[in-house]
Amino acid sequence: MIKTDVFSYQQGNSPVIVSFPHDGVLLPAEISDHFNALGQQVPDTDWFVNQLYNFLPDLDVSFFIPEYSRYVVDLNRSSQGGSLYPGQYETSVCPVATFDNAPIYKEGKEPDADEVQRRISAYWRPYHDHIQSEIARIKALHGYAILWDAHSIRGVVPQLFEGVLPDLNFGTAGGTSCAPDILKRVTDIAHAQNHFSVVENARFKGGFITRNYGNPEDNVHTIQLEINQSIYMSDDQPAMLDEGKCECLRPLLNQFVGSLIG
After folding, report:
1. What is the pLDDT of residue 121?
2. What angle, 0 to 180 degrees and rounded to 10, lies between the N-to-C axes of helices 243-259 and 180-192?
3. pLDDT of residue 82
4. N or C terminus: which one in the chain shows less Cβ crowding within 10 Å?
């Protein structure tokens, strides 16, 4: 594993690249005191997702993991702003509130426009430069690349969706970011099992990474998988990885990614 100032990565040579944009938990020292007690807990982290995918080195897959929390800068939002889901509550590239719309900064300490641009330059840009260079490298090797964007979220977030989120939520920007036959390799496996509920392009259709880099006509395919955290985390507080639950989920994830390599 190679570590940079803002993310760690491992380079593989299979056609698949895996991104964990919301896996980081750190807050830089120069701004950590700006966050309130809730913000410093970084509650909207995609907890332990990279540990779910601990099989990736065996598949010779490239993957990268950010060091810093999405509260510093959200790697799955456009640096130019704009809405992913018009009419729905969303957080921005530098969030000022949680998914529950609770403030994460001390009063008056929210980032201004200059600070947002500084964070984009320092944390957002290097991650996306690496995605672009890795896609180009993999395309040079294979003629195509498949980017898998790995996420998770609490199963109940009333501000974002009604009721309880399904277990496995596949997103391909409404079918535009990935060729149907490539997605079908994965969803056939998903629908063949009866332990987890599965939906495609429902509430979560893919964020900026899926939508920005997916271009099937240029042989770049992107798939987002949003996982309900209840299917791999404990119910205790603070929540922890539940290895018993992982024994059921992890082999399925391995099959998903493996199906894209052949």
Report:
1. 97
2. 150
3. 61
4. C
pLDDT digits (tens, 9 = 90+) for 228-248: 999 999 987 777 999 999 999
pLDDT tens column, 19-29: 999 999 999 99
Q: 10 Å Cβ neighbour count for 206? A: 29
Is the pLDDT at 83 greater than 90, yes or no? no
Domain, as residue range, for 170 = 2-259
- CATH number for the domain spanning 82: value is 3.40.630.40
Q: Count of domains in the chain?
A: 1
Which residues are CB-neighbours of 129 under 8 A, at least 6 positions away?
Answer: none
Residues written for the chain: 262
